[in-house]
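thought: fold this chain, then report.
action: predict
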Amino acid sequence: MKKLNRVMVLFALAALAAPIGALAQSAAKSIDNWRATDGTVWKNGTNELCWRDAGWTPATADEKCDGAIKPSPPRGPAPPPPAQPVAPPVAAPLAPAPRPAPPPAAPIQEKVTFAADALFDFDRAVLKPGGASQADRPIEKAKGVTLEVVIAVGHTDTVGNDGYNQKLSINRAEAVKSFLVGKGIEKSRVYTEGKGSKNPVADNKTAAGRAKNRRVEVEVVGTRARN
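observation:
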């Protein structure tokens, strides 16, 4: 009997100890999950979910059960704000294309042909007084022209030998050059040449033809400004 009484006393003490432990734990924290007498939370048959009583909230849930408030994971640095779209640079207005330069003025060539008899006495290379007015014609042609060169070429008929006629044609060209330089044309721009009787423009068998062959040709080469 005494042994039986001792066993019953032990069971009674154990039964009293379980509620006291539970009360002490609940005093520390209110747990609104159903708990066994040993303080363990009751779970469903698969041992996955905890039974909740009527006063259950996430704040009063057991830490090992679903729904308990868990400490938030540490927050990393805040993400940088999204980059603002950058407006494309405004292109500067294109400068107007330069106007093409006008083409250079085309060179001009103006030729004056004198009858040698109008400038010189027969078989002479000195300008006659009346021939000077005729020799002014190349100067008139050169007005308004950017002068490049003036070429004076003397010619003769076939009377006389070739050597004599060649020298006479050169002397007559030189006489015209001296006259033009005296009128203000640069000496370095005036060239002379003698052709003798090599380039006739008419028949030397007649007096009229020979008169045409005795001549001085003056060519003015330059450019004239466009209007």
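thought: worth noting. The beta strands are 107-115, 145-154, 190-194, 215-224.
final: tokens above.
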